[in-house]
Structures are given as C-alpha cells and as structure tokens.
Amino acid sequence: MNNLIKLVFVLIIFPTTIIAQSSKKIYNYNIDLLHVSNDEVTVSFAPPKNNLKQGKFIIPKLVPGFYQAMNFGQYVSNLVATDKNGKKISTERLDQNSWMVHDLKHVNKISYQVADGWDSLEKDTYEAKSAGSMFIKDSVFVINYNSLVGYFEEIKDTPYQINITKNKDFYASSALDYKKKDKNTDIVWAKDYRQLVDSPAMYCVPDTTWLKIGHTEVLVSFYNKQERQYSKTIAHEIENILKNQQAYLGGTLPVNKYAFLIYYESSNEKGFMGDGLEHSQSTVCLYRSGSMKFLPNALNRVASHEFFHIVTPLNIHSGEIQHYDFLNPSMSKHLWLYEGMTEYATIHMPIKQKMISLEDFEKTLEEKIKGMKEFDDKVSFTEISKNAMTRQDQYMNFYEKGPLLGLCLDIRLRELSGGKMGTQDLMLQLMKKYGAGKYFNDDDLFDEITTMTYPEIRTFFKDYIEGTQPVPLKEYLAKVGFTYDENTGKVSLVPNPDSKQLALRKAWIDQ
C-alpha cells in the first residue's frame, strides 16, 4: 500500500428523486467505457443552467491524501464546447488543469477525451496509481472520477448525474448505488463533486461478495485476469476483523455501506507491491506479486486501518476537508487525529478485543517506536500537518509516532477518569458532536476536546502535538504496568505490578 495516502471526504447519498426534479441544475455527464480507443475514453456533459458569460472549468490538480501535484488535467485532450445547434463556442486552455469556456450560458455540451493514468503495475514510478484511472477494454476499468469529471469554479456544490455506457456483462462496484438504465447503460447520482470524487468504482465482470456487519453492508469486489472467483476468500479473511471493529466502536458502525475495490495483477517479478487510497466509504487497493499467498494478510492490515476511517475523517473532520479546494487546498493541522488516531485504533483494537497476545502487542509497539526514531523529533505534528505538501519527508511519522501519542492520550484519559473514559469513548463523543454533515474549526479542536474531557488534556496537546516534547512512553507505560527501555526500545510487562497499575491496564486493554 502506498502510504502517501490519506484524508478524504464526507459521503452522503443524495436522493435521486430530488435530482430528477431539478434536471437543469445538475452536471449531466456521459462516459463511454464501451468504445475505447488507444486507452482513451470519450466524456461529455451538459453544464448546469446558468447566465454566465464565461466559466473556469477545472480538473483537479490534487486530491485529498496526496500532497504533491497529480495534475489530472494532463490526461484530458480535445476539449470542445458547442451550443444547442452544434456550433463551436470559444474555449482556451489556461494551464494543465483548467480551461476558460466563453459564453457559458449558451453552452449545450462540452466533450473531451481522457487517457488512462496507468495500464500496468509493472511500471516502476513514484506516483501512486490508486488516485488515477485505468482502462483495459473488455476487461476492467478502475475509475477515479477526479481524472474523468470536472466542475466550473463558478458552479460548485451542484449535484451530478453520470450516465455510463459499458459492456453489458460489466458490474459497477462502488459505495454509490449504480442503477441499470438498459443493458449497456448505468446511471449514478452524487450530491456534489466532493462525493463523486470520494466514490471510486471498478467496472468488470463481477467477482463480488457481500458481508453484513450489523446494519452495514460491506462489498468485497475483486479483479484478476486469471483468478475470477477470489472475493469470497478475501471476504472470509476480513469478516472477523470487521466484526471486532464493530464491537470496538460500541456495537454500531456509523455507515450503511462500505466497498473494498481490489485490483490484483499477477507478475513474474519477485516481491509484493501494494498501492491504495482510502475514501469515506470505500477503499481502492492495487496489488502486484508473483503469488497470491501474500494477499489475504496484506488485505487484513489494510481492511483494519482503512475501515476505521469511517470514524475520521468521515464523521470527524475540519472545514479544510469539508471545503477542499482541488486546485489550491488548505491543509488541516489535525493529521494526528485523521491518521495517528486511526492507526492507534488499528493496533489497539486487536489487543482490546483479544485477537492477539500481549507479546504480539508489545512487538507492535516496539516496531512503532523503531519507526518513530527515523524521523525528525524537533518539528511538531501540527506543523507537519499544515505543511504536508512540503514536509513529505516527515509525513509517515503520523503512522509511527502518531499511534504512540494516541496510546499515551488513551492512558491519560483513563487515568484521569478512573478508567471510565478512553480514546474509544472520546472518538464516539466527537462523532456525536459533529457527524458526517458537520465540521469543526481547525483552531478550536484542542479546546473543544479539553472542554469534553479534562484541563490536563490541553497540556498534553500543547506539549506533545503542538509542541515537540518527546513522547512520554516510559512514564505512561509504567502507569499500566509495562517497562520501556529507551536504549533498546524493548517493551515488556512489569514483573510485579501493583493494584493501581493492574486496574488501569484492565481499563486500557482489558488484560
């Protein structure tokens, strides 16, 4: 899995009846996946009704989670605007990702060609492929709408209707609900551009398995050219993890549907390559190896972390995420929450739910400690987060130091509350306070959490997340009856813990 990944958006299903009643106030798109030539698809759309003399049409430069320019406009060519009589209307390309369309109020249709961003995982590039689209005619299409569909800067927060022409045997796997218009046409709706981009799809002859986790429907969709009946194996592997996550989150998952879209490419090369991009209610996973034996374990790890993102940023996020600018985004300073706390839940859940042994948990902590030491400890997490595009050298520390800070925060909360409250409870309270339709102000979150918890927690944030004081692992692990050797990085149980240590450990990991 490519780890330059993260941050995504709120996904809310938009009622189709509302869109149907407001057909002139939508982006009405047509995407042709049936007549593909030279790995290019034809895209056309009717813009929403407007009275604009001109409009700036945008294909994203960046998408959430990637902190370098992806420039998806580079795959777009031959953009043409016409009026209702088919007469061309003047357009000009402003840069790699935007076009000026003149006399927009008279534009009836805009059409263009889109080339795929990758056609094989064999090619070694530093660019993550999971945010792009891939077209293999008559086989499979991995669709990320940020590379196919755009919007006018002057017409935002507008619904989308997407009509897709495709092979009659193909099925669209996605968190969105695709409806069959006829044997060669699907139709799907999105509340706005953010939701559309946050909802990738994989089109192919289906190899799918559905799981029911509480009230949540989970789709596992798999594609491999040789192996056509593997989704059931994968679903069986991840079902236990998802059920334990449900228990960990209080017995209810805050999402009705989730989709795992898995593309696997067989290779003669040695090794295993993974690339992935998480979304609010789905995950794209791209894998390549010479043997599928690595796949279930790799997917187990991905399933656990990515599925926890239904908590944050789906239900807990700042205005910077809610109102993401696809050309010049402003970064939130709370990647410690989006990624660090998500990764902490990923390592805390297995021990809390008794899925692993204490020894395995200790090894996980030791691996995180070792990883943390590879990064600069003189720069704060809020600074890295706000400057994620220029501090990519430090980004991965959110997955190493981040969960260790989450561990300390968890123990501190349980200590202050007499074992009654931890980060599990905090995240549930934050979900209730904000939820998918709300967002917090970036500068207010630390104070909001302090108001919900204890004054001492503000000092914790000031020292370890806004500040650069070393993670207090030795002190905090001692509170729950563990020793930590700062020289060797070794974590182990205290031989004779006292009753206070045992009580706090039980509240923390139920051991």
UniProtKB/TrEMBL annotation:
Residues 28-203 form the Peptidase M61 N-terminal domain. Residues 301-404 form the Peptidase M61 catalytic domain. This is Peptidase M61.
